[in-house]
Amino acid sequence: MSAVAAEGREAKAGSGRPSSITLLFNNRLATFGLSVLVLVVLTALLAPILPLADPNATDPASRLTPPFADGHILGTDALGRDMLSRLIWGTRVSLAVGFSASLIAAFAGSTIGLVAGYAGGRTDQALMRFIDLMMAFPYILLALAIVAILGPGLINALYAIAIVNVPFFARNIRGLTVGLARREFIDAARLSGKSSLAIIGTEVLPNVLPTIVITLSTTIGWMILETAGLSFLGLGAQPPQADLGSMLGEGRKVLFTTPFVSLVPGLMIFFIVLSINLLGDGIRDVLDPRLRSGALARPSARTDIAEDRVAGQSSARDDQVLDVKDLRTEFRIGRSIHKAVGGVDLAIAPGECLGLLGESGSGKSVTAMSLTGLVPSPPGLIAGGRIGFLGEDLLDVSDKRLRNLRGGDIAYVFQDPLATLHPLFTAGEQLIEAIRAHQDVDRAEARERALTLMRQVRIPNAEARMDAYPHKLSGGLRQRVSIAMALANDPKLIIADEPTTALDVTVQAQVLKLLDDLRKERGTAVLFITHDFGVVSEIADRVAVMYAGRIVETGPTGEVMANPAHPYTRMLVDCVPVMGEPDRRLSAIRGRPPAVDKLPKGCAFAPRCPRAEADCRRGTIPMEVKRGRIEARCIHPLAPGEALETGA
Ligand code: ADP
Ligand code: MG
């Protein structure tokens, strides 16, 4: 018990994901923006203690002094006031107004959005129509009207800018909240008796906060510009107070004779807005959950392959459809390396079905996705090995060839058909698209073929189901549609990743039978991934058992199930309930698989294995045990028929 807790804590501490700050500093432009902004803000904050001249002290004798003359670094304006001093004090005012206006707009707008989106119905209607009304007026006109009503002045300009920006936050946040308010975790919170206010605060708000921050960071620069605009028109800061906009306005009068007077505040506005926008973009990237796991780059269309990949000497075996040797796929996250697949060998003959079996997290899906380069990079990287497919090494082929193979000669069926089928297209349209992506046929013919496929996967009433959207089909039918899509281009290999896990038992049996029949009819090779020995025994000719990224045992299904050599396989077999033997005790496997970024030395299963001895923990265990057609990676294998002393 305590060991498990300690393990959990350790895993948390060393999770290896770089912090948001590190990610932000990895982005050079954002770092530049941040540095400029910090410099500007610091200077503005320190204005009272800097040795500056009085920004409002006029001196007609030295009016329009050029920069670097008479002790005025940036020269003087038309009234002889020191430009440097006015610039720094003016920046202080502009920043304060811009930031406050943004915060007010963000707070008011987000609150309206949250309430409208969560409450829905009439409250939503009333609030949103009010917001629409505000959006119906041209933006700057509305600000001008508000200032006209409130009277010119800096504070009123601030209110005006804040008010005209409320709709952007309200619209954005409402849209998100509407989607969230109907999600199951909100229902769960309601069922737990939380008040609406608490739900908005603790369930909805944390989910929309990144969007608020992103919108905020990208609008602050804009708001500083707007404040400057109002001041430029004489509606914001009133003389003699300086802000960047009013300085621009004063410079305009002497623009052609002494341009530096307007250039100085103009450049300052430029730098502030630029730095805030660069920083805002950086913050958006860091807060985007899809980019969180690794570097700040979007995943590429194909998994990266290590430059120094050692392909291994084994020659391509033409008698096999798939011949994988020593495949190693890693995730490089921060400084840690997760060895999700650590040297996997697989071979599948034409028409054969290989069951790839293992606990959740053992690396089955990553193995399957590596085959056609579908592991997201970064952080994914194929570090080594070769993937022989009908004599070709898939790690060497061009991107174009790989695209042709995907969905063509190699087809996938995934676990959750609702997630893989497009919700906005009918089953028929998606089948037709799958066919036309690889075959040069017109729509009418593709439709004919699609219909034939729907019948082949035994979808009743296929004609009508062609025009059904995925949400109208039951789970079993959806998975049949996925299988039809996989079959669309007569693949040589079908990779089915837990295709029946999301289905109930009777439907699961039907889908398994269908897959089995189809592959026998067509002679298609199948890589069938599952965590369930019960399922694998119904379809697979051979099994490969995977643990912590490596194959630990392989052999014909019947032999492996009857007489496994590896203790892990034995335990998996013992987990399968047998119909008609209600008294048999099912033993759960104690402990958890190791974290793949901290694999133990030696056998990865040793910490959970009742037969483990000191030598199991010393070095890499080879795939050495050979018994009949069974091969296992164990140095203390079970004898045929030997039971496991679990010592429970
Ligand atoms: P399963 O056998 O359940 O299909 P997977 O192949 O999905 O397991 O995962 C194997 C390991 O790889 C797990 O430890 C998982 O955390 C890790 N992993 C999978 N995908 C990613 C990813 N995109 N980034 C980082 N780690 C990943
Ligand atoms: Mg998986």
UniProtKB/TrEMBL annotation:
<dbReference type="GO" id="GO:0016887">
    <property type="term" value="F:ATP hydrolysis activity"/>
</dbReference>
<keyword id="KW-0547">Nucleotide-binding</keyword>
<keyword id="KW-0472">Membrane</keyword>
<dbReference type="InterPro" id="IPR050388">
    <property type="entry name" value="ABC_Ni/Peptide_Import"/>
</dbReference>
<feature type="domain" description="ABC transporter">
    <location>
        <begin position="322"/>
        <end position="573"/>
    </location>
</feature>
<comment type="similarity">
    <text>Belongs to the binding-protein-dependent transport system permease family.</text>
</comment>
<feature type="transmembrane region" description="Helical">
    <location>
        <begin position="204"/>
        <end position="225"/>
    </location>
</feature>
<dbReference type="GO" id="GO:0055085">
    <property type="term" value="P:transmembrane transport"/>
</dbReference>
<keyword id="KW-0813">Transport</keyword>
<dbReference type="Pfam" id="PF00005">
    <property type="entry name" value="ABC_tran"/>
</dbReference>
<dbReference type="InterPro" id="IPR035906">
    <property type="entry name" value="MetI-like_sf"/>
</dbReference>
<dbReference type="Pfam" id="PF08352">
    <property type="entry name" value="oligo_HPY"/>
</dbReference>
<dbReference type="InterPro" id="IPR003439">
    <property type="entry name" value="ABC_transporter-like_ATP-bd"/>
</dbReference>
<keyword id="KW-1133">Transmembrane helix</keyword>
<dbReference type="InterPro" id="IPR025966">
    <property type="entry name" value="OppC_N"/>
</dbReference>
<dbReference type="GO" id="GO:0005886">
    <property type="term" value="C:plasma membrane"/>
</dbReference>
<dbReference type="InterPro" id="IPR003593">
    <property type="entry name" value="AAA+_ATPase"/>
</dbReference>
<dbReference type="Pfam" id="PF00528">
    <property type="entry name" value="BPD_transp_1"/>
</dbReference>
<protein>
    <submittedName>
        <fullName>ABC-type dipeptide/oligopeptide/nickel transport system, ATPase component</fullName>
    </submittedName>
</protein>
<keyword id="KW-1003">Cell membrane</keyword>
<keyword id="KW-0067">ATP-binding</keyword>
<dbReference type="InterPro" id="IPR027417">
    <property type="entry name" value="P-loop_NTPase"/>
</dbReference>
<feature type="transmembrane region" description="Helical">
    <location>
        <begin position="29"/>
        <end position="50"/>
    </location>
</feature>
<dbReference type="Pfam" id="PF12911">
    <property type="entry name" value="OppC_N"/>
</dbReference>
<feature type="transmembrane region" description="Helical">
    <location>
        <begin position="130"/>
        <end position="151"/>
    </location>
</feature>
<feature type="transmembrane region" description="Helical">
    <location>
        <begin position="260"/>
        <end position="280"/>
    </location>
</feature>
<dbReference type="InterPro" id="IPR000515">
    <property type="entry name" value="MetI-like"/>
</dbReference>
<feature type="domain" description="ABC transmembrane type-1">
    <location>
        <begin position="91"/>
        <end position="280"/>
    </location>
</feature>
<dbReference type="GO" id="GO:0015833">
    <property type="term" value="P:peptide transport"/>
</dbReference>
<dbReference type="GO" id="GO:0005524">
    <property type="term" value="F:ATP binding"/>
</dbReference>
<dbReference type="InterPro" id="IPR013563">
    <property type="entry name" value="Oligopep_ABC_C"/>
</dbReference>
<comment type="similarity">
    <text>Belongs to the ABC transporter superfamily.</text>
</comment>
<feature type="transmembrane region" description="Helical">
    <location>
        <begin position="93"/>
        <end position="118"/>
    </location>
</feature>
<keyword id="KW-0812">Transmembrane</keyword>
